[in-house]
Amino acid sequence: MVRESWMEIYPYYQNYIQNMRPLFEQSNRFMQDILPEDLEDKTKITEYLTEEEKRSVGKVKAISEFSAMYRRDIFTRIWDCVEDLRSTTDLEEIRDIVIDDFEDSIEFLDFLSTITSPEQFNYESTPLFLIVQYIQEQIFPRRNSLQEVYDHLIEKSVEYYETQRHLLMPTSSYREKDESFESPALSPLLFKIINEITSLFNLDPNFLESPKDETIEIPVVLKDEVFLPFIDSVANNELINLQQILKRMELQLIHDIFIGPTMNLIRVGEPHNYFSREKISDSKERIKPQLSNETLVLIYLAKLSYKRGFISKELINWISSIFSLLIYNASLLTFVSEENIFYTIFTDLKTEEKILPYMMKLICFDKYLGIDRTKIRDSVQYRKEIFSSIGSQIQSMKKLIVEISKYITSIIEE
Amino acid sequence: MAITVWSELIEKFQNGLTQSIEFLAERDVENIPGAKERLVEKFTQLRNFLPRNNGELLITMINNSIQSKLFPNTTNHTIAFNQILNARTLEQDSIISELIDGFISSQGKTLFGGTNRRILDNLVEAFKKRRDFKIVDHQFYAMFGDPNKPRKYVQERLDKIADFLGLEVENLHVEQDVRDGKPKNYRFYSFPEEITQILEGKYIEVQDNGEKVITEDFDKMVFISYFLATQSINRKNLDKYAINGICAIFSLILLLSFMPKLEVDETNPINRDEHFNPQTMSIIPKSWLTKGILGELMTPLVQIVAYRVGGINWLDKILLTDKKINLHLQAQFLLKDVNKWVLGNMCRVEIPIFVEISNIFSEIILGAEGGNE
Prior knowledge:
The complex is a heterodimer. Chain A is of the alpha+beta class. Chain A folds into 2 domains: about 5-135 and about 310-414, no CATH class; about 175-300, no CATH class. Chain A is built from 16 helices and 6 strands. Chain A has helices at about 5-35, 40-50, 60-85, 90-115, 125-140, 145-165, 190-205, 225, 235-245, 265-270, 295-305, 315-335, 345, 350-360, 380-385, 395-414; strands spanning about 205-210, 215-220, 250-255, 260, 275-280, 285-290. In chain A, α2 runs antiparallel to α3, α4 (about 90-115) packs antiparallel against α12 (about 315-335) and α6 (about 145-165) crosses α11. Chain B has 2 domains: about 1-70 and about 240-370, no CATH class; about 105-220, no CATH class. Helix content of chain B is about 55%, strand content about 10%. Chain B contains 15 helices and 8 strands. Chain B has helices spanning about 1-25, 35-50, 55-70, 75-85, 90-100, 105-110, 120-130, 135-145, 150-165, 195-200, 220-235, 240-260, 290-315, 320-330, 350-370; strands spanning about 135, 170-175, 185-190, 205, 210-215, 280-285, 340, 345-350. In chain B, strands 1-3-2 form a 3-stranded antiparallel β-sheet. Chain B has a 3-stranded antiparallel β-sheet with strand order 6-8-7, with no helix packed on it. In chain B, β4 (about 205) and β5 form a beta hairpin. In chain B, α1 runs antiparallel to α13 and α4 (about 75-85) packs across α11 (about 220-235). Classes of the chains: A alpha+beta, B mainly alpha. At the A-B interface, α6, α7, α11 and α15 of A face α7 and β7 of B.
């Protein structure tokens, strides 16, 4: 895979925006020049479109075809708007509405185009850097220790637990090998296993002397009780996989029979009351589990966030696509209202799939998410797949988009 | 014959309740003062009222609440779909999603599960794209098709899902396509007209010019509800895996609704946890969910639900081997988005279906007690 530099990706990111912006500008100028009564005359618009679509010899075919398609898209919406409103609204007023909508759309495109700089070293004051930092703080924090990352995730989980969990569960269906040292995404099956472990620890724990510290007894559950509903029997291969799965949640296999928390999990979980201590003799304490739904899911996420070099390809694509979608949708919300007649152009898959993949690569750089950008897939098919899950938005993500949009407004005002 | 079966099932459940009450009396692990007494009181009430009026209590709970909201007892697809749609809330959506998981190895899995699970998101996107509430095969291929595979592949998948869901397919032959001037065949997929009418308003907006645009509320749960409606009217043809899965979830809903609402001491750490909201949640002590209690109650309740929902046909398909009973018990791990673990306490989120079943319980008991006086 090619390791592309910032200087190489940036122009790709700008390419589409820079082609779209003039289309909106020119069309806006046409609207400003047109007499309101001519809005009712479809031939005026058709004449304009025919004139604009004449390709000069020097112009690249792809670009002129692209422009023609979008220009038609823009004018179809204008025509629809005139048809919808002309029985109730004055034509001059309709023209003003369209012009306002154009201006908002141009502002949005301008923001996207100036969101970052062509040189990587100027990053600190760019909106892209600030917004990525803001989102990371909510759902994927960077800190110096696992404890700090975990503490922060739990603090933010009250508002954003669903989004934090969504970040771990891609809807795409690429299979990943579990033996790899990299942490894969949470599959629906793995999520069920986590639920099961949480329930068993809470409902029916046994207690065993810790292999690391004989002064404490740690809670354990039977391995077979957790996994047998999912697999028929645990052989050597399964055992290796189980150990990998458990390790990612700071759990350990004890005597090949029991599953118990590592001392690390007890240490990071105790401040949040996920474990409490009970004295059972002068020299022994018992660690009692009182786990919440988010306890193990967030330790999985915290470990990924803390050790970003070990995230699997599938998950890297998913995390960066969620981040770029959040940035894109929050920017859209800031500038373009849902009533804007061009709103659906920006939420169209064909627009998103041309801007977001490059934004995904930009935000993977070290100063941003700091994950391996060479793993971002370039295939058109994959882009279609990953962005088609936009339809299943979740409630807490909508809330986060609103908050990011407020943050963008504060950046602009500064 | 039917009366005997029904009476036997009620008796079995009564015995289960007796054993659970005995189990509760023997154990002393409760860390919430008064919790044990409340559950014993509720279970005793339940046990005493079960046989009255030929099991009126359970019949009303299952018919008026579970069936009418999640699995309508009708042969009319439109009515069934309408009932499920009207009962939708965020939490009830999670129950419906888990019901779909109950269709283990049934056709639901091959269509909505595994690698195909995004097909529903794709359908939503495809409807969003157009202004006539239809999906066109060419457009669907352009949006989601794999360029390395022929369009036929997408068409076959769409045909299959349309057939399964009951979507209507319309063919259109065009002699000269505007783009390339060649003859072309288009296939349009849409909901039947009567279903479209139900969706109008909340899920589809009909513009003045007759265009139909889907709203923000239109999501994949609409398809899943439609799928569930199809299953509910075709309940006679379901396989035993699906029947066992569905009955286990319905039984768990009933059991959770039977459990009384508890209030905990102000000093309890759970009150300081921000994930716990005493207004919308109530604690179910974990001792109430141990195998000693659930083990005695789940199996007879699964049988009761099977009999009421699918008759003797379903009851015969309930598996009663040890392994399968263990699987019924796995139901305690279900509904994880509706029942949350908060600091080691199972918290029931008071969603409408729990509240409703609980209210039926109170109404019937109060009515009967009033009658006795």
